[in-house]
Amino acid sequence: MVFSSNPLSLSVPDPTFDTWLRDSGYLEILDHHSSSSAAPATTSSTTTTTTTVTGLFISFFSNVLTLLSLFTLNPFSKLTTDDFSGPTPSWTRSFFADYGSYSFPSGFDQARLRANENVKRYARNYVSLFIIFFACTLYQMPLALIGLISSLALWETFKFCSDKWGWDRYPVIRQVLVRTAQCVAAVILVCLNVQMALFCALGVSYTVMIMHATFRKLTPAKQPTRGR
Known about the structure:
Layout: H1 14-24, H2 27-37, H3 49-69, H4 91-96, H5 108-121, H6 123-140, H7 142-165, H8 171-191, H9 194-215
Helix pairs in contact: 2-5, 5-9, 6-9, 7-8, 7-9
């Protein structure tokens, strides 16, 4: 369905029309409207070279500020547990798509709109990417992998011994053993740099997520059927 920028411009102001699009779920139209309104106007033949160069510098610094502002966004503000329970969107058709599905955000408002919506739509894809990045990081850091496996083995051993000897009947002894196991596990994780592997995976996956979410254009979502 093709919409003009505001088909009700004679009776409905643009802010009200944008609010209706947002509330109705037509976020892809609002995204396209933001890109169209930010498109530069065609310069006349009387425009001087100095004005053109100045405009290029202004556009360049505006894009730099937009890029820097991406890391001030909170893409998890509208994320709910229901976003992780649905099916994973297709990696080829939905998540990556084609070259035409990406564009530079025209400003902070459009970047925030895209980030909030795309993080909700592709939450399961981003979680899968984090797991892949974390696995690759552990592969590059064998000591961290050994530390993670050792920590898991420690807790499995503790659980096995607790079930075998009935430590639940001695709450004081069990509490002391739990605290001891926690301290040993923390020492193993810190000494073998498991936390560094986790931070690296989180940093890379967050950067990829925020860049993809803000550059990925909003695509039409399935609209709920409304009864008459």
